[in-house]
């Protein structure tokens, strides 16, 4: 098993990505701290990990090109990082990908290949392209460089909110929560880190119950960025080591959180990005002082966003 990322790894990543990834604001709205990763250059936290990985590749690897598989945000991040570093990029996306995310990948100059509807379909096609074209794979979440880059979000949270007590983080494959939790527990072990999954895509919940990564038969949610069938081996290890709890929310709660962010914080969030807020605001809970939710992205089509606000 690859060792868990360290605070030093995350601090090194912060220096490496400086100047492209931005230090996003942490806004206070109605008792909740909102970490606005939707303000990143390509609209999501994914630029942190993608850039951290590409910046460590050799010149020969960059010249040959990179590839990833993604429902959208990681693909846009790899495309943007590759554009900044002068590397060709290929992104394998689902046939059901949001058009706004497909357009974003192409806007940054990457080639798009469509393959199936699940993360396993996309991964298989990307691996085939690696073999055929000698490209370097940039995994969406299960890699120490990706996790360390995502963890820079956690460094900023502790700096921006000194009284932070609990942090809610959306959970897809687990890269973001792995990095954020590693950073926060390395700096402030008493701060609780809680992952939030859609109830229709609760692979980390199922894996924690089994004590090992498990593969779901299917996933379904409006949170299209949180639909991997299985967490990564490395991300699961980080969650087991650093995360205090995982909770689930349904799509109705996620839609309500999108509306709450619009009304209370004037923030546009995609469903995946608002899932953390749904967890923080879930019925029966109370916002304790120092609560922060990471809004991981804001790439949503105007038509879909309007429908969520109705």
List the helices and strands and how they pair.
Blueprint: H1 7-17, E1 26-29, E2 32-36, H2 46-54, H3 59-64, E3 66-69, H4 73-85, E4 89-93, H5 99-107, E5 111-114, H6 119-133, E6 136-137, H7 144-160, E7 166-170, H8 175-187, E8 192-198, H9 203-210, H10 233-242, E9 245-249, H11 251-265, H12 271-280, E10 291-295, H13 302-309
Parallel strand pairs: 2-10, 3-4, 3-6, 4-5, 7-8, 7-10, 8-9
Antiparallel strand pairs: 1-2
Helix pairs in contact: 1-2, 1-7, 2-4, 2-7, 4-5, 7-8, 8-10, 11-12
Description:
With 310 residues, this protein is α/β, with parallel strands linked by helices. It has 2 domains: 7-44 and 143-309, 3-Layer(aba) Sandwich (Rossmann fold); 48-137, Rossmann fold, CATH 3.40.50. The chain has 13 helices and 10 strands. The protein has helices at 7-17, 46-54, 59-64, 73-85, 99-107, 119-133, 144-160, 175-187, 203-210, 233-242, 251-265, 271-280, 302-309; strands at residues 26-29, 32-36, 66-69, 89-93, 111-114, 136-137, 166-170, 192-198, 245-249, 291-295. A 6-stranded mixed sheet has the order 1-2-10-7-8-9, with helices on both faces. Strand 4, helix 5 and strand 5 (111-114) form a beta-alpha-beta unit. The longest helix has 17 residues, at 144-160. It starts with 6 loop residues before the first helix and ends with a helix. The model has no long low-confidence stretch (mean pLDDT 95).
């Amino acid at each position: 098993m690859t060792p868990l990322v360290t605070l030093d790894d995350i601090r090194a990543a912060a220096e490496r990505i400086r100047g492209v990834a931005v230090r996003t604001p942490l806004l206070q709205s109605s008792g909740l701290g909102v970490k606005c990763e939707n303000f990143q250059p390509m609209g999501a936290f994914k630029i942190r990990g993608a850039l951290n990985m590409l910046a460590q590749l050799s010149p020969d690897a960059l010249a040959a090109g990179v590839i990833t598989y993604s429902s959208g945000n990681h693909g846009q991040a790899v495309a943007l990082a590759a554009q900044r570093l002068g590397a060709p990029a290929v992104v394998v996306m689902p046939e059901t990908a949001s058009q706004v995310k497909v357009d974003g990948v192409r806007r940054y100059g990457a080639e798009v290949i469509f393959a199936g509807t699940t993360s396993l379909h996309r991964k298989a096609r990307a691996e085939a392209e690696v073999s055929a074209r000698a490209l370097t794979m940039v995994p969406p979440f299960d890699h120490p460089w990706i996790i360390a880059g995502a963890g820079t979000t956690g460094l900023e949270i502790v700096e921006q909110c000194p009284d932070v007590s609990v942090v809610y983080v959306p959970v897809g494959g687990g890269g973001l929560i792995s990095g954020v939790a590693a950073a926060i527990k390395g700096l402030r072990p008493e701060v609780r880190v809680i992952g939030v999954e859609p109830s229709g895509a609760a692979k980390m919940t199922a894996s924690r119950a089994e004590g090992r990564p498990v593969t779901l038969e299917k996933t379904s949610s409006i949170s299209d960025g949180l639909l991997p069938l299985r967490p990564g081996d490395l991300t699961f290890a980080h969650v087991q080591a650093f995360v205090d709890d995982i909770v689930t929310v349904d799509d109705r709660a996620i839609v309500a959180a999108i509306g709450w962010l619009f009304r209370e914080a004037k923030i546009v969030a995609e469903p995946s990005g608002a899932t953390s807020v749904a967890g923080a605001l879930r019925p029966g809970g109370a916002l304790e002082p120092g609560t922060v939710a990471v809004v991981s992205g804001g790439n949503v089509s105007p038509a879909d966003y309007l429908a969520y606000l109705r």
